[in-house]
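Researcher: I'm preparing a figure for a lab meeting and need a structural model of a single chain. I don't have an experimental structure, so a prediction will have to do for now. The sequence is pasted below. Please return the structure as tokens so I can convert it later.
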Amino acid sequence: MKALILAAGEGLRCRPLTLTRSKVMLPVANRPILEYIIRALAQNDLKEIILVVGYKKERIMDYFRNGLDFGVNISYIEQDAQLGTAHAVKLAESMVNEKFLVLNGDNLIDAGTICDLIKGASGDVTLLTAMHQQTTGYGVIILDKGKVSRIVEKPRDKISHLINTGIYMFSSSIFDEIDKTPISETGEYAITDTIQRIIDKGANVTNITTKGTWIDAVHSWDLLKANSIFLGKIEEVKAAGSIEKGAVIIGDVAIGDNSVIRSGSYIVGPVIIGKNCNIGPNTTILPSTAVGDNCSISSFTEIENSIIMNDVRIGSGSYISNSIIGGNNIIGPHFVSDVGKDLKIEMKGILHSADELGTVIGDNNIIGPSVLVRAGKMIATGCAVDHGVRVTKDLPPNSIVL
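Model: Understood. Here is the structure written out token by token.
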């Protein structure tokens, strides 16, 4: 059986991180979201994978290549225009001639999630569902005598707690139905519209409710919760680097090759530190923190519940909490990320909610000494922030703040 992964989208609600990468390449516990999906498929012996790529496709293809390093065989299809999920599925018609899986590339799953679908699949189409108390923003499933009778996209009322995960098992007959699916009100060809057509024709459409992991990181700050969960799943805690005398390591802490934890540093897991990092001396890293490769974190800095991507330098005496720092950033000493709860964050005129957040910083910024970023405020890419600045509003790309 083949698996088709839809990975062409941008992820606008995860900006500024997705200005330089697609959402599927955002890291959780130092691995891209998409890697978790591919490894979950491989663990279920699904080795033939088709990736539908589009936005920033080169970054995906450079990382995964032909898939051999991940125990799979990957083929690529390019979706030139974002015309919807049904359009993306249709692109794979010539490569599929039997039952196959369809997955969204920006959802975090584990092997058990895929196993639930494979073992429970029946009928003409099988949807993987999950029980959620909070259904706002999701499509929900209505059942009738154990079969799917209706898919309701983003209902205003809580008519069901059974949400559609966007993971399906189809037969090749789905392609004929896609050809008959009209364009939706949003201007896209939606696979849920195709499935509803199949239901209305009286076909047997079933659902399986997964007990495995399924996390939809809608916003950039949702990655922090996912990061905490997947750090707790680290199978093998290793200390491949060196730990100097006087450093204290408590709990599950994975340290990559050639990384050094210097004297006086205090690290409490779950924490993962990548390769070629220099931590400390006298640096504190607290639970649910991921530090990427080639990072330098100077003395008397404290980091907790945060994601630090590759190639980041953080100056001494800094405090970073509940934050995401993109790649290739230079952050001067005494940097502080303020933290707020129940925040309302505006994106293109729409308010979004964040339970708790410090800041989100994109790639390739230079931030001077003694900078404070107010809770929920974001710095895009290519910005230069001068000494002593208080960032009280979002900074667009290539901003210079004196």
